[in-house]
Specification:
By secondary structure, this protein is of the alpha+beta class. It folds into two domains: 41 residues, no CATH class; 133 residues, Electron Transport, Fmn-binding Protein, Chain A (Pnp Oxidase, Chain A, Roll). The protein has six helices and seven strands. A seven-stranded antiparallel beta sheet has the order 2-1-5-6-7-4-3. It starts with 17 loop residues before the first helix and ends with a helix.
Length: 204
């Protein structure tokens, strides 16, 4: 199984490799990121804010790569909170039965490096999480990760150990809303329409 060098100075070194830092230097952004590394820095444990953010999301993207480095991105979805926090270093989700290609599982069997990308379109925010992942067929874990009233069969679980995480600015994110989110926005308007219609009927 592919594993990288664990000897890093900052959590962000998982992404800011020497090659990346060289380009940052050439493009003029290295000084700002060096200051970030020495002050606020990226996190490597789940904060209260991150846990709250994850609990509201009904989908996310999981990135993996095979031993040759060929990347693959998979969308995973379900009820809000489909991605669950097990502890301050560990996330997990029920991997529901799908098209049975098993690309993610195959990639993780030879390269455990993984990446989670979570979008909140209405609030124009996103979270990036680097880590290592593995497949688990532990029935107790799958039961813990599954919603009893959700009509999908969990085939296995994916357990994700966090290396680092960071947020992005809202730039270039177009707000999009799910059916449930639109319904919540429209509900008071619908009640107002019904009230006005009742007034009209009463006055007629």
């Amino acid at each position: 199984m592919i594993r990288g060098n664990p000897m890093t100075e900052y959590a962000s070194d998982v992404a800011f490799t020497p090659a990346v830092k060289a380009i940052q230097e050439a493009k003029g952004s290295r000084r700002g990121y060096a200051k970030m590394e020495e002050t606020t820095g990226w996190k490597d444990t789940v904060s209260e804010d991150l846990a709250g953010f994850i609990a509201t999301r009904d989908s996310f993207y999981l990135g993996t790569a095979n031993a040759e480095g060929q990347p693959y991105i998979q969308h995973r979805g379900g009820r809000p909170g489909v991605l669950k926090v097990l502890d301050d270093k560990t996330l997990a989700f029920a991997d529901f039965r799908g098209n049975r290609q098993y690309i993610t599982a195959g990639n993780l069997s030879e390269n455990d490096k993984a990446y989670i990308f979570i979008m909140d379109y209405p609030n124009r925010s996103r979270v990036k999480i680097w880590g290592r992942a593995r497949v688990s067929d532990d029935p107790e874990l799958m039961a813990r990760l599954s919603d009893a009233d959700y009509k999908a069969v969990p085939e296995q679980a994916i357990v994700f150990e966090i290396t680092a995480w960071d947020t992005n600015c809202p730039q270039h994110i177009t707000p999009r809303f799910s059916e449930a989110e639109v319904a919540k926005i429209v509900e008071p308007l619908q009640r107002r329409i019904e009230a006005l219609e009742a007034e009209l009927k009463g006055g007629g």
